């Protein structure tokens, strides 16, 4: 049995685009997808970015659509012998897991996923570690990371954690997703 583990392919969705090619083209062209908003309590301006090219009625529907955008590309690259394939996924804190599960179950890609597990990770490295360990149970796995600070931007502003003229070390509230195979 081989102990080697590989990332064969990946895809991402960012506020700049629906895949890595579009996102990189937008970045290289220096086209800003960040909006400037004003903090309601301090009047400081701050930058933020959402995935606004996806129109959905709820957060759960939006993130299922982001997940499906990610999966559409990679599932075409996976050999038929590996389908259906297991999936590990992290969800943004603002998302209700049960509502996401219900929406995903009726999506086009649900029948290509043998099972999926929602992981509760505090950090990216912890998520990667759990994904690598999952390869002890599976021959192959899709690893989907979804994250959004955009929905939490007002709380982050109140806590002084957003990049503004008064907080030069803060974060830029944004959102996105990536899948690894």
SSE topology sketch:
Layout lengths: L9 E4 L6 H9 L6 E4 L6 E4 L10 H19 L7 E6 L6 H9 L7 E6 L5 H11 L7 E7 L4 H6 L16 E6 L1
Parallel strand pairs: 4-5, 4-6
Antiparallel strand pairs: 1-7, 2-3, 6-7
Helix pairs in contact: 2-3
Structure description:
This protein is 30% helix and 20% strand. A 5-stranded mixed sheet has the order 1-7-6-4-5, covered by helices on one side. With 181 residues, it is of the alpha/beta class. Helix 2 (59-77) packs across helix 3.
Q: Please outline the major beta sheet.
A: 5 strands, mixed
| Radius of gyration from CA coordinates | 18 Å
Overall average residue pLDDT: 86
Secondary-structure element order, N to C: EHEEHEHEHEHE
Could you tell me the number of beta strands?
7
Order of neighbouring strands in the sheet with most strands: 1-7-6-4-5
Strand residue percentage: 15-25%
Stretches where pLDDT falls below 50 for ≥5 residues? none
Task: Please tally the helical runs, counting DSSP H or I stretches of 4 or more residues.
Answer: 5
Q: Which structural class matches the secondary elements?
A: alpha/beta
- Judging from the principal axes of the Cα atoms, what is the shape? elongated
- Tell me the quaternary state: single chain
> What is the helical fraction, as a range of percent?
25-40%
Q: Span between N and C termini?
A: 19 Å
